[in-house]
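anyone else get weird line breaks when pasting these?? whatever heres mine. first is seq + tokens for prot A
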Amino acid sequence: MRPARYSVFLIILFAAFSFADSVRACSVPVFRYALEHWTPDAYEALVFHRGELDADSQALIKRLTREESGTRANVSVMTIDLAGDQAAKWQPVWKSFKADKLPWIAVRPAPRTGITTLLTSEALTEGLVDHLLDSPARRDYRARLAAGDSAVWILVESGNVEADNAAATALDQRINYLNSVLKVPELSDEDVANGLVSISSDDLKLQFSTLRVSRADAAERLFVKMLLGVESDLGELNDPMVFPVFGQGRALYALVGAGINDETIDMAGIFLSGKCSCEVKEEN
């Protein structure tokens, strides 16, 4: 099992929640508290250009920064004019990308996450923006979370069919078991009255599901990089990996190779279904 980390933020278009936050949470399970209160940190997108951006590039940037019809993408954009006043400051960063054309975009997790791996560095194109904002797997797990799944356990395949099938079998079997035995906490009247959760105990259900994603799927290339970016060395490993994704597009930690077993799956499942606390919120 990998070391526990609670902060991976996946670019996701999600219905905006407007629930009140609080300094404490007692009876609300982690998965539900995260759904209502933990918004993802924004990725930072640096767009390098020289002179005024053309209309097409401006339209692409507007797509990245959109917040319309109750949806949002967790990415903030900074445009950097290499012919402007800040050019000298940004020249070392620009040169480090070894870019061959403009406009150029580099996307990275917010510095506060402590994750330093670039998500991507490439020419700003419509195709890139499409991949940044969405993919079939993200639409799938987003729909499941919005429909009531507590978490979607995403298996990133290694490309080794035997290893991937074994990991999927182990995961599916244990998730089915957890669905049958884990119970959610009884919500306290006080927590409901204080707005810590927007539903009643009768409507609070536990449901885990699984989803397989291929590293070879071109449509999922940036989504896979988002997941592998949770830890600095995951991109160097060729094992199947499992990421429990919950809340508004937040991943827990990676279960890798032989670490995809009953014990580690149980630990993650118990954490997600257990009572939230101030300590959990601080670690988050």
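and prot B, same format (seq, then tokens)
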Amino acid sequence: MNSEDIIQKLAKETYSIEPGQCYEVGTLMPGDAEGVARCFFSVYGAGYAFPQYFNSDYLIKADSKGDIRVVVARTGKGDIDGCGVLYHSSAPNPRVYELGRYVVLPEYRNTDV
């Protein structure tokens, strides 16, 4: 599926989750990738400068290769209420990751997520 198809699909959905759920922070599991993509899209919309984060296949592949590291806040139901992506920046040591591209759903912004 190309970027335009992914954006059209995500635009048809409303991603919101039940507020007040407990959550755990952990690394990306393949079942999380769709929730991460929905989280990014629901916060930033179609004009986001890094649309690859809307693509669950990209997230899984890039994370498994070590190109990025995705950290998620996952509810007991498996919903993703926030996430952050560690990526390689221009640091002198190419193994160093920088935390960026961090999003939290509006329902969880005033929580510890």
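btw re prot B: The two ends are 31 Å apart (CA to CA). The mean pLDDT is 92.
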